[in-house]
Amino acid sequence: MDTVALQSRRIVSGMRPTGKLHLGHYHGVLKNWIKLQHEFDCFFFVADWHALTTHYEDSHVIEESVWEMVIDWIAAGIEPSAVSLFLQSKVPEHAELHLLLSMITPLSWLERVPTYKDQQEKLKEKDLSTYGFLGYPLLQSADILIYRAGQVPVGEDQVVHVELTREVARRFNHIYGREKDFEQKAEAAIKKMGKKNAKLYNLLRKSYQEQGDTEALETARALLKSQQNLALGDTERLFGYLEGGGKVILPEPKALLTPAPKMPGLDGQKMSKSYGNTISLREPEQSLTEKIKKMPTDTNRVRRTDPGDPDRCPVWQLHEVYATEDQKQWVQQGCRSAGIGCLDCKGPLIDAIAAELRPIRQRAEELSSHPEDIRRIIEDGNEAAREVAQDTLGEVRAAMGLSYK
Ligand code: SF4
Known about the structure:
The chain has three domains: 3-177 and 254-262 and 370-400, 3-Layer(aba) Sandwich (Rossmann fold); 182-242, no CATH class; 285-368, Tyrosyl-Transfer RNA Synthetase, CATH 1.10.240. It has 19 helices and five strands. The longest helix has 30 residues, at 371-400. Helix 4 (60-76) crosses helix 18 (342-368) and helix 9 (136-145) crosses helix 10 (159-176). It is mostly helical and 405 residues long. The structure holds iron/sulfur cluster. Iron/sulfur cluster is lined by residues 297-298, 301, 308, 310, 313, 315-316, 331, 335, 340, 342, 345-346.
């Protein structure tokens, strides 16, 4: 596969190491990563610098969580041979690109990111009026752009971060993509495509630039992607030339919208460490059973003989994730007619979650007894990630006039 096609198949995603992973992480993110790992060129990383933006005062949590999180990922089904797994802080190119991008990013772009104010409100106990916290969406942009990823798997609430990344990339390309002899280089690159393709490219470019024909633009992009003979620099020039801009040094990534089911916690609110309502990925069976047995139910169902309403019960929300259609019917009928008690109702739920967690826990135990294997996997991933990141940074430095010796 040529470089441009490979980039558009590349996705980047990270997770902050701020404590034990729980079922919310598994259903909200990990299951999706597991699905994507064979479809895309995946770069998954431990976002330890991101964890510092909110946990700078208790950074020991980060150190404790880094390796455990990687163990959880692999235990849950991430295959190290299929993806690049790495530590953000071991690829310092993320930090350099973040710094360079910070020079061209207007402050207002960061201040208007909705999560900036939201998180400050939600995490009132922490002082988040810091430079690092304001800049974390830009660090995310650097995380993505340093790999020139084509797509970023996100839920609806994160789309705004991908939008910011696109704006920053566009601004960077606009400012630094104009080489002195850009047009001559672009024209020379067109010739390298061969007579027939060059003619087609010129026609499509004209059609887009003169008549705004977006179909022509898409066809021309596809044509460029299919060119095996062009060097990456030439392809980037021609992408920019097509739209009347300069060289595309940092391609704009697209949001890959992923289904992120809201995983209910033990109290019916979203499962989250801050609500204390989690079931960890390595929850022992006995503690799992106790937690489910203690779950609150429909408060109107005081006695066993009182009929209940599943819609008012957090247990039902978990059944919606785990139960088969037959079991759901059994719960609905049994609850509303007082045919079953709440402990009966919780039984199949305990069994289903236990069955889901058992292989993960067992595999995590095995992996924990070979910490050197986990270190090696991450070292290999760091190396693979650095190779790509250094390439991008080399081009970025050159474009900004910083590659003097
Ligand atoms: S029977 Fe099940 S759904 Fe109904 S109140 Fe009890 S736990 Fe909730």
